[in-house]
Amino acid sequence: MKKYFLALLLAFASPLFTLADEAVIRPDVEELFTVMRMEKTMKDSMEQGMKMIPKMTAGMAAQSLSKLPPEEAAKATAMQQKMQEKTMALVQEEMSWKKMKGPMAQVYAESLTPEEVKGITAFYKSPAGQAFLDKQPVIMQKTVAMTQKLMMDMMPKLQALIQAETAEMMKEVAPAKPAPNQAP
């Protein structure tokens, strides 16, 4: 009877443990998340990422699909699209704000003192902080574009460096052998 009572108690108490875990978020971190519009920012970031996935996979799949007969390519495209939809739904669920908020709050609470959170919150409440939040999506877009351009400009230099280093490595690993003597 005691075992039955204990099992019943644990069964009813487990949702309370879950609620307790969610309630552990420090109030100052909760306020910071609100002022930073963290839920909206995460949602917008997720939406941007979800828009990029079809473009990326379409490019990768196009080459493979071009080798198939049209009927099979259409079938493979439909199957790929269905898999992509399921994948995106799973990612959206598992990376939702509801699931991310607690762990993210834990990171903030472990990394920042209450005084630091208070100062950061004050900044984000200020007109400058609000302007930063308003302009952050544009800043991020421009930063990504700038980084991509820098990477593209760097690629020839990187390729030349890799080729030179590979050639040097090959010389050390397998030095050129002298031509065999050709005695008459």
Task: Note down, in words, how this protein is organized.
85% of the residues lie in helices and 0% in strands. It is mostly helical and 184 residues long. The chain folds into two domains: 25-125, no CATH class; 136-166. Helix 6 (114-125) packs across helix 7. The longest helix has 47 residues, at 127-173. The N and C termini lie far apart (104 Å).
Estimated structural class: mainly alpha
Count of discrete structural domains:
2
**Beta-strand proportion:** under 5%
N-to-C CA distance: 104 Å
Q: How many extended strands?
A: 0
- Profile the largest sheet: none
Helix content estimate = over 70%
- Give the C-alpha Rg: 28 Å
Calculate the mean pLDDT score and round it: 81
What general outline do the C-alpha atoms trace?
A: extended
Question: What are the defining features of this structure?
Answer:
184 residues, mainly alpha, 7 helices, 85% helix, extended
Blueprint (SSEs and pairs):
Layout: H1 2-22, H2 27-35, H3 38-65, H4 70-94, H5 97-111, H6 114-125, H7 127-173
Helix pairs in contact: 2-6, 3-4, 6-7
